[in-house]
Write a structure and sequence with these properties.
The structure is a homotrimer.
Chain A lengths: L2 H16 L10 H4 L2 E2 L8 E6 L4 E6 L9 H15 L6 E6 L21 H17 L4 E6 L3 E2 L1 H7 L3 E5 L6 E2 L2 E2 L7 E2 L11 H11 L1 H10 L5 H7 L4 E3 L8 H10 L2 H7 L2 H14 L3 H21 L1 H12 L2 H20 L1
Parallel strand pairs in A: 3-4, 4-5, 5-7, 6-10, 7-11
Antiparallel strand pairs in A: 1-2, 2-3, 8-9
Helix pairs in contact in A: 3-4, 4-13, 6-7
């Protein structure tokens, strides 16, 4: 008699990881309705709004890895605030213009031999990103096309729903076959010799539960997509194998969208994110926001109350000799790794 | 090497959804020991006690949908208090006399163009139902034979264990084949344009975990039985396919029990609920109650402390124009839906 | 399309329950590096350190069942403190010299007709064991070769990672086939007519989640290994079927280790525990300890703050007539059971 439940268990999960409508949106109506905001291609963040759907896209655009500098943090907050002022928008898709990296986390150059004045300012800007995302009146959907380690994982967890690319056969974008990659996600701070701050650690606890979070925090675990799905660190995993837009679709899109976001807009992860964003946008905003406060207001209040202490602790932790040594070792290892490629 | 765990996983779950002893109780000893309380058929709540087993049944009986009015709320509390005073009783089965609806949640007529005096009184009575169920010395087993949306889901979550009917082939009761139905359960408040109060939302968080609760609260998700089992919103799902009491059993029962509760008493959900109730009744009451306080006293204290603020917030939220419009729209939609049937 | 996830689900779990490297350590380098501490065979606790690996073993050694007396509690704390002062050690394996019992929990003789002076002292020593384990700078791995009921389960939950023996074919140790046994784990206090104290109940909530914890606390559930794995009460289950060290290995080991710990050192549970301990030992200690504080400092502070009240409540609860009767009944039942064997 095990079969019924088992198949229901499988169905439910398989629904989750291969459910998107197969680009019924080939007609491009969604993209046609996208209006490009004032952000230019060189902006740290690109944003587009689709007022008909009530959905906006906010794409991080700081090559090569969307590592979070003071400036990128501020750009995210500014862009989110802009979207927030538009009463027609209910949902935001948080994405990256980089097809293989969502965000690499903190910009390590902010941490090594840091400037006394800039370091607390930098940390404050990261806190602000969390506060603005986690407490937003908007429903925020993370479209995690690429890697999301450390603070990159925090960005995703601060959203309302997480969709991750699951690797697979490699996708065809712009008519060219894109090399397959398997992204990972997790708070891997201890691998760098540092620790996630309490509010970030507790965000992981809320997301995946106490026991798995404790272990993942201690070991700095990075989860591949399917493990992330099983642990609940992401809510959906998309394997893009079956997606190949027609030449017409691509041609039409070239006129509609600037390049950095176009590739992403065509990915199935983004398609699914859009469906999800529409789902949230249809709920009465008043009721949805009240529901969000039920689960988030308490922890946000605590975090804001301990904000200064958190900054002080972080700055003094980072400035320790051992920590500085660990960070430099980590950066050297990264450099060697990228040279050997 | 995946097989052992997998089969153990399946076994455990299959145990859960097809475990009840196959009506070994055909001898009706359980029902013979049921004494009908003073409640009449027309009471909003029917209660029966079986002192030998230490188990009572408390069945909501407000047609057509057990929607929670001020009066039903008060009747639940009164009946529970009555049972509580009987030291021989350790467990209660919370059930419904309606074979397809556990409880439809708040009586919406209490919310539309509400009376200034009655609205806070009504909300207080709902809070009291929660407090009395959640903090009861009795182990309470929810026998969820039918739908349990919104506050109906809250009733179930305030119990100690939840058993749900899983649909299936349809059951034979009173010799007649009962049409199959698949009940759903969940806090679907946002679908009505309102939000579950904090204490109800936090009850969902405790029951199914933070991340699934957040999403279910935002979207107002109603779960079918198997999904509810997988998420942990219910603890057991019973498919009644194999249950068909003999003519003798039915005949005997007709003499033993008044009609509204008889049908339910014969359901496998109720049978399983009775087994579960017996299990709890066998534990040392002192130890069991002390255990219950460990996990519940804190949140109950918080809820009681913020009770007045909760009432004020609820009343002012409900009285907003947009909310009133949403509620009226919802009732209109319901009316159309029932006419078209 | 269910297959990929399903197989990934199975793989992950099967990885967990049959993952240990197949005793690549047959060379005994690990055991050669073990230095026996001052503890003698007759000590209540045996400890060994391997400074090269950064790992220590702390094995409870109070026959017949490692039941926690005032003296065993104090010995655990003393031994842990000793290990703690060695800066080369980052991880500890908490084990038992008894191959079928991890720890039977509280020594019931401490509870029956207790001495007024000793009872609070005893309870304080148990609190101290929890505080020292749960808040330790060391990563502690529980090697649960045998039963772990009640406070034995608490010991395991206070560690950072739990590996349990899963029964199976029976293992070959010292060249002799060891009889198979299937250990169980859980807070079964209510089965004895007592209740786990709040801090222990809340530890279970953090470990397996609110809803499963509530039920397990109420019914006093003891979980067999696979159920414990599925619920998250342990993190890994090892079936020892394939382990049979060579005669040389055994011979070499006889010289290296005193008897009580030798058998355990050869078990696959211990092997896996050692691998896990090494994993934690490789993380930057500063970062690892900071991470541990993120999830544990709050609940530890609360527990310490309510320590006296907890002791008072426990002592008065235990001294109640009903509770004393329940305990005596339980001990009688145990005696009968062991006679009938």
């Amino acid at each position: 008699m095990a079969a019924p439940l088992l198949s229901s268990l499988c169905c439910r999960h398989s629904l989750r990881h291969c459910s998107p409508r197969r680009f019924a949106r080939n007609d491009l109506s969604f993209f046609r309705s996208l209006s490009t905001s004032i952000s230019s291609e060189k902006s740290l963040v690109l944003s587009h709004v689709n007022e008909d759907a009530g959905v906006a896209i906010l794409a991080m655009n700081r090559p090569p890895a969307n590592s979070l500098s003071l400036e990128l943090n501020e750009a995210i907050c500014t862009s989110l605030k802009e979207i927030d002022t538009n009463p027609k928008i209910q949902s935001v898709i948080l994405a990256s213009t980089n097809p293989t990296i969502f965000s690499a986390g903190l910009d390590v150059t902010e941490l090594i031999s840091p400037d006394d004045q800039r370091l607390p300012k930098f940390w404050n800007s990261l806190q602000q990103v969390y506060i603005d995302l986690y407490g937003s009146r908007l429903a925020i959907i993370a479209a995690i096309q690429g890697h999301a380690p450390a603070a990159g994982c925090m960005l995703a967890m601060a959203c309302d729903y997480r969709i991750m690319y699951g690797g697979g056969e490699g996708s065809t974008v712009d008519g060219r076959k894109r090399k397959s990659h398997i992204p990972t996600i997790g708070l891997n701070e201890t691998q760098l010799g540092i620790a996630a701050p309490p509010w970030m650690g507790q965000l992981l606890v809320r997301t995946i539960g106490f026991r798995p979070a404790e272990r993942a925090l201690a070991l700095g675990t990075l989860f591949p997509p399917m493990e992330a799905l099983i642990e609940g660190l992401v809510d959906d995993v998309i394997t893009e194998e079956s997606f190949s837009p027609s030449a017409d679709t691509i041609h039409a899109l070239e006129k509609l969208l600037p390049d950095p976001i176009r590739n992403q807009a065509l990915s199935l992860v983004m398609q699914k994110a859009f469906q999800e964003a529409e789902l949230y946008a249809k709920i009465s905003p008043q009721a949805r926001v009240a529901s969000k406060l039920v689960t988030r207001s308490e922890s946000l209040k605590d975090m804001i109350a301990s904000r200064e202490a958190d900054t002080e602790y972080f700055c003094s932790f980072i400035c320790q000799d051992t920590v500085q040594k660990n960070l430099k070792k980590y950066v050297e290892a990264l450099k060697k790794k990228s040279k050997s490629k």
